[in-house]
Amino acid sequence: MNVTSTEAELFAIRAGVAEALKNLDINKIVIFTDSMQAAKLAIDPTFHPCRMQMIAFATTLRTFFTASPVNHIEYWDVPSACEWPP
User: Fold this and answer.
1) How far is residue 49 from each of residues 7, 25, 42, 46, 62, measured CA to CA in Å?
2) pLDDT band at residue 11 under the 50/70/90 scheme
3) Phi and psi dihedrals of 8, rounded to 5?
4) Distance of alpha carbon 7 from alpha carbon 84, whole angstroms
5) pTM score
6) C-alpha–C-alpha distance, residues 17 and 14, integer Å
7) What is the pLDDT of residue 50?
8) Is 43 exposed, middle or buried (0-12, 13-18, 19+ CB in 10 A)?
9) Taken in order 11, 14, 17, 18, is the CA torsion positive or negative?
10) Which of 3, 15, 41, 50 sits between 20 and 30 A of 61, alpha carbons compared?
11) What is the C-alpha separation between 11 and 29, in angstroms, rounded?
12) What is the CA radius of gyration of the chain?
């Protein structure tokens, strides 16, 4: 199976958010990425290659957003040139 870098980044974003949402005491998630294209796809239901992942992710996000009106997610564009450590 061929996986594009965008799909890999998308999976990493979704996996990270899903892991963060296991902590019930949070109300803000910040995603640092050098791929805003993938970040936008993380919430795009029309992105076909990962539709099943999107359904599961959307269900998790819905639970997070309906738990409190202050819950939110921010995306920060951090170019690779910044060389932030993982």
Assistant:
1) 8, 32, 12, 9, 21
2) confident
3) -65, -45
4) 22
5) 0.66
6) 5
7) 64
8) middle
9) negative
10) 3
11) 16
12) 13
Q: Could you tell me the two tokens for 31?
A: 């995603």
**Residues 40-82: pLDDT tens digits?**
666 666 666 666 667 777 777 888 888 889 998 888 887 777 6
Distance, CA of 71 to CA of 28 (rounded, Å): 6
Token pair in block for residue 10: 């998308």
Looking at residue 17, its amino acid is V
The 3-state DSSP class for residue 70 equals coil
Tokens of 15: 């996996």
Q: Which H/E stretch holds residue 83? A: none
Structure tokens at 22: 């296991």
The one-letter amino acid at 8: A
Report domain extents, the chain: 5-82
